[in-house]
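Researcher: We plan to redesign the surface later, but first we want a full-length starting point. Tokens attached.
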């Protein structure tokens, strides 16, 4: 409700100075934004300007198709069973053939990304959902989309999204510098 009140006041032409730790709030309500660290202004400008100037490239989220796991292969050739049926202290494991196939699929994708984007950094990977941070002066939206679309079938890409660095990530990068300066 407060956001609606502030938005209606801003529409009348009234200037408002808002202090907040919420970058979401800043993006929703502000036309210009300043980031302060230790009481010093580090940057001032429009939201898009700050993202472009201080952001670290793009975030790439990809879902790749993993091989189907045949239930008969799992039940007959491995010890993979429901957790409750395992003796205490036992671990679940995947059949070697399946884990090797999954590893090969993800490694092919990782190799491709590292060859295509020099400064790619793996952020997270879980069951075929892979997130990279893509940085570098030569990385553009068009290059990322062209590269992925051209190789979508070969890399078994089901879906992907590319987003610009968020304002929250810009703020956190400044905060990291603050921590580094204090140590």
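Model: Full-length starting sequence:
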């Amino acid at each position: 409700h407060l956001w609606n009140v502030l938005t209606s006041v801003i529409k009348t032409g009234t200037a408002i100075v808002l202090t907040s730790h919420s970058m979401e709030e800043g993006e929703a309500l502000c036309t210009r934004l300043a980031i302060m660290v230790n009481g010093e202004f580090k940057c001032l400008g429009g939201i898009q300007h700050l993202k472009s100037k201080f952001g670290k490239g793009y975030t790439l989220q990809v879902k790749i198709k993993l091989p189907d796991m045949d239930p008969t292969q799992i039940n007959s050739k491995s010890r993979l069973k429901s957790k409750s049926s395992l003796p205490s202290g036992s671990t679940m494991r995947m059949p070697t053939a399946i884990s090797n196939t999954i590893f090969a699929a993800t490694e092919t994708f990782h190799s491709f990304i590292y060859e295509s984007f020099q400064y790619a950094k793996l952020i997270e990977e879980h069951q075929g959902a892979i997130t990279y941070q893509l940085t570098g002066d030569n990385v553009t939206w068009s290059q990322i989309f062209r590269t992925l679309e051209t190789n979508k079938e070969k890399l078994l890409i089901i879906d992907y999204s590319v987003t610009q660095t968020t304002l929250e990530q810009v703020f956190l990068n400044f905060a990291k510098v603050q921590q580094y300066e204090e140590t």
